[in-house]
Structure formats: structure tokens, C-alpha cells
Design brief:
The structure is a single chain. The protein has about 425 residues and is of the alpha+beta class. The strands form three sheets. Strands 6-8-10-11-16-17-20 form a seven-stranded mixed barrel. The protein has a five-stranded mixed β-sheet with strand order 1-19-15-14-13, with no helix packed on it. It has a four-stranded mixed β-sheet with strand order 3-2-4-5, sandwiched between helices. Strand 4 and strand 5 form a beta hairpin.
Length: about 425
């Protein structure tokens, strides 16, 4: 593990901060599972293939999933007749019937997004209308003339019809409390040891500082936040963006079904993103400390080697976190530092001395690159409270996490008595 602070590599400014970011960051596409025998489904697929943003989609005939773990998971989670419904996989979530249609529409251009207004109608009514057409689709539109749609497509379009689909382990069970889904990718994590005393002013009500082998850590984290959706609807103005945050680790003891358990979570000291809309939404709904600054992401690939960087700046200059790594990531080791850092599945935000917000973050265990070349450019400590700056110079440890689809649940208010 190597850290190098470099002040001579800051000539690259954020001149690209206004480029179209949509799907410029690493992000798994949206998978559309369709009835390969249905003329209506073929029409929908061909319609999507004609869109300029068709690279956001991958298409798989439902017949290809027969007998697979994915088919079992779809039946379990959606409780659908797979012969009469589109199914969409997006950020680890499965959508069927009318919800699948809206998930697709939200990925289209602005002209088509007006159809999302129909989402204001009760979903029960929309699904009933969907089912009425679906059960009669062969009588209305007939069967597909060419069951294998790839036979009538160009070679470039055929690449959007893969023989594989996301792993079942990346598919979440349905939950009503989901507020946001996205994909976190290529997380660069630099960890610093700090005295636990300096965290007390930032400690939300109802939690206590968590530590690893008696050491209190804060982490400077840079990563890509891609494919962001709220209730299955992609954000039209800020779906993909970079984020850099400084966070520390906490735990909360709760009693569930008569058993005392610990919820391990994180508290953010400051979060930097490139869009004011994202910062405002997070601050409003979760009481976080988001700030908008110009940001930039770069990825360079050479054979098995990869370099990733996250850059941000203000009037005081440019800062960046850069990491290079190669090969495949490793599964988390039980009891390792990487497991401690990444296996915190709750977020907490301080509202007052007696109240706080708690929200759950769901994702599968991440694989990591423990041996990486990581360097930081610029005076990044100036973006954080003065009390932290002396401790952000020499890292305790560092690594890169692969990331995955994630879901963020709606926040709950916590109150404690004096």
C-alpha cells in the first residue's frame, strides 16, 4: 500500500465538469426481460434499440432464463406469471408489470418522461390495465414473426442481447421502505486514526463510536454513484455523479424480537457531490452534510491494470484521489479491517442533541483490492473541520472496494431521553 501526496500534479482543472455524465461512470445496465414469442414485446425492444441511449439497456428473452436461479428468484420476488409480463432488473431490484414499464420510461429522453405522470394513478389500477392487455396480447398484436429477434438486427445491436445476466446475489428482495437505489463503484478508501474525543460533537443521539481493535478510524472515501433512481425512476438531471466523503463509524444497540443486537453504521462529517439537487435532497430527507463542488472522474485501463481518480475543487485549488490496481478483487476476510470498514449497513445523521436520523443501506459484501497504489493530490484536509486536519496527513490503512448495486431505505427519527 502506497500513499503519495502530490502538489505538482494539479494543473488539470475541472474543465469537463459540465459534460453529459449520464452513464459515463461505471454502471451495470438496465436488463429488460421480454417474451420472445410476443410481437408487442418485439416492438418495444426495437423501439428501445432506436433510442440514442440504447446502451443503457440489455435485452434477454424470458425463455432463456427457464430453469435458472434467476427465474426462481423472479417468481419468488414478483409472484408473476412470467408468460405475461415484462420484467426489468435495475440496480439490483426487479420490477414487473406497470412498474417495469415505468422503469424503462424513466431511462428515456425528456420527451418520453412525460409519460411518468401516469405513475400518479394507483399502481393497482395500472397493473390491472397492464394485465388486461397482456392476457390478450397474442389476439391483439399476434406472435412475433421471427422468434429470435437478433436474426433481424445489425451486429452492433446484437451486442445488447447478452447470454448472461446479473448474478442472483445482486438481486434484492422487494421492500416497501426503499427510497433510493443506485450503484456504488470503485470505492477508494483511505483510513485515518483519530482520538474518539474529537468525534463527540458529531455523534448523533442514540449511537456510540465503533472501533476496530481499539482504534477509532475516519475514512476519506471517493467513489462513483451511478444509475441513481428514486422509487425505480431514474433521476433525469443527476443520475450519475462522483462523491467524496469523510465519515466515521458508530454502533447502536437495539432489541429485535427480544434479542439484543448491534446495528453498525456510519456518520458523515462532510459529503461532496457535483450537483446542488443531490446535495439539497440528501440534506432535506436525511439531514446529511452535503456540499456541491465541481468534480471530475477519470478511468484509464491498460491490459489488466486500471487507474481511477476522483477530483474536486474550489477557489482554493484542486484536490484528487487516485488509485491504480490490477487483477481481480478478493473476497472479504472474516475479521479484517476491510470487513469492518465496509460492513456498516446503517447511516446516522445528527439533528439535535436528543434526536437523529437512522436509515438502512443494503448491499451484498464487497470484494476488495487490498494491495493498491493510492495517492492524494492537493490540500484535501482544508475541506473538513480544523480539528480533523492534523490527523488526515498519514493514513492508517487504505484499500479499494469493488462496489455493487445498493438500496437506501427511508429514514427514521430517533429520540433519546436525557
Amino acid at each position: 500500500m502506497i500513499l503519495r501526496v502530490d502538489d505538482n500534479n494539479l494543473s488539470r482543472s475541472s474543465e469537463h465538469s459540465n459534460i453529459d455524465r449520464y452513464h459515463k461512470l461505471p454502471c451495470s445496465p438496465t436488463f429488460v426481460f421480454y417474451d420472445g414469442d410476443c410481437a408487442t414485446c418485439h416492438f418495444i425492444v426495437k423501439f428501445l434499440l432506436k433510442r440514442r441511449n440504447n446502451q443503457r439497456f440489455r435485452f434477454v428473452a424470458l425463455q432463456a432464463t427457464a430453469g435458472t436461479d434467476l427465474e426462481l428468484k423472479i417468481r419468488e420476488y414478483l409472484d408473476l406469471d412470467l408468460t405475461s409480463s415484462l420484467v426489468v432488473w435495475k440496480n439490483g431490484e426487479l420490477w414487473g408489470q406497470a412498474s417495469a414499464v415505468f422503469a424503462i420510461i424513466s431511462e428515456l429522453g425528456w420527451a418520453w418522461k412525460g409519460l411518468l405522470l401516469f405513475r400518479l394513478f394507483p399502481l393497482v389500477l395500472l397493473n390491472a390495465l397492464y394485465n388486461q392487455y397482456a392476457t390478450r396480447r397474442y389476439q391483439i398484436a399476434g406472435r412475433a414473426r421471427t422468434p429470435n429477434i437478433c436474426d433481424v438486427l445489425s451486429p452492433s445491436q446484437r451486442t445488447l442481447f447478452p447470454n448472461e445476466w446479473p448474478e442472483v446475489s445482486l438481486t434484492f428482495p422487494p421492500r416497501r421502505e426503499v427510497f433510493l437505489s443506485a450503484q456504488w463503484r470503485e470505492l477508494i478508501l483511505l483510513n485515518f486514526e483519530v482520538p474518539s474525543l474529537i468525534l463527540q460533537d458529531y455523534l448523533p443521539a442514540g449511537v456510540e463510536v465503533d472501533n476496530w481493535n481499539g482504534q477509532t478510524l475516519v475514512s476519506l472515501v471517493g467513489f462513483s454513484f451511478a444509475g441513481t433512481s428514486i422509487l425505480g425512476m431514474s433521476l433525469p438531471w443527476a443520475s450519475d455523479f462522483e462523491e467524496v466523503n469523510l465519515r466515521f463509524y458508530v454502533k447502536r444497540t437495539v432489541v429485535e424480537n427480544g434479542i439484543s443486537t448491534q446495528r453498525r453504521g456510519v456518520v458523515f462529517i462532510r459529503e461532496i457531490v457535483p450537483f446542488s439537487s443531490i446535495a439539497t435532497t440528501a440534506n432535506l430527507f436525511y439531514g446529511e452534510r452535503y456540499t456541491r463542488l465541481p468534480m471530475k472522474h477519470e478511468t484509464k485501463i491498460s491490459g489488466q491494470s486500471k487507474e481511477v481518480s476522483y477530483q474536486w475543487n474550489d477557489k482554493g485549488g484542486v484536490c484528487a484521489i487516485r488509485a491504480s490496481f490490477e487483477g481481480d478483487p478478493y473476497p472479504l476476510e472474516k475479521g479484517s479491517l476491510a470487513e469492518f470498514i465496509t460492513e456498516h449497513y446503517y447511516g446516522y445523521a445528527k439533528k439535535s442533541s436528543l434526536t437523529s436520523t437512522e436509515y438502512e443501506v443494503e448491499h451484498p459484501p464487497w470484494r476488495v483490492w487490498p494491495d493498491s497504489n493510492i495517492r492524494v493530490e492537493g490540500d484535501y484536509g482544508r475541506f473538513y473541520p480544523e480539528v480533523f486536519r492534523p490527523y488526515l496527513k498519514k493514513p492508517h490503512s487504505m484499500f479499494i472496494a469493488e462496489g455493487s448495486p445498493i438500496r437506501v431505505m427511508r429514514g427514521n427519527n430517533l429520540s433519546v431521553n436525557k
